[in-house]
Amino acid sequence: xxxxxxxxxxxxxxxxxxxxxxxxxxxxxxxxxxxxxxxxxxxxxxxxxxxxxxxxxxxxxxxxxxxxxxxxxxxxxxxxxxxxxxxxxxxxxxxxxxxxxxxxxxxxxxxxxxxxxxxxxxxxxxxxxxxxxxxxxxxxxxxxxxxxxxxxxxxxxxxxxxxxxxxxxxxxx
Length: 173
Ligand code: IMP
Ligand code: MG
Known about the structure:
Bound molecules: inosinic acid, magnesium ion
Radius of gyration: 16 Å
Number of strands: 9
Number of helices: 3
Oligomer: single chain
Low-confidence stretches: 71-76
Strand content: 25-35%
Shape: globular
Strand order of the largest sheet: 4-3-2-5-6-7
Helix content: 10-25%
Distance between the termini: 12 Å
Largest sheet: 6 strands, mixed
């Protein structure tokens, strides 16, 4: 697989237990209204599929695919949606699901964009948070793990598109 994993940071049992807890928090966090769980691809695909099965209330699932630009390329807010959810966001509770918060730049831009569509509420659920994000303007209401400041792969997270299928989360050599 190219680079080798250094150590397992969160194993399958730890992840499953934490995802179950998060599902419980989300279930009790939304007493009423329509809930749309919005996964940011590709990194959130495994987390999202496990998470929604631990949420015990009606919900809908959709995805976002975002492309970021460097500073030289013009785009509105430097983030462009390659796939935009089909579903109407207005009036719904939107839960944006992300694999990992690093600098927070991606989330800032996406949250600005989603907020403009007048959802009833807009919150972030991140599997991992490195807590180095100086730039994130929005609170992360639901966080799986406070992650070490290492490069992590597995359970959806990649290094150059590899390692996404590994069932645990590991740091790279
Ligand atoms: P941010 O905009 O700097 O917060 O970047 C977040 C994105 O960078 C995540 O959605 C990941 O795709 C990627 N990323 C940041 N840190 C890691 C890591 O440790 N492993 C894998 N991907 C990461
Ligand atoms: Mg990535």
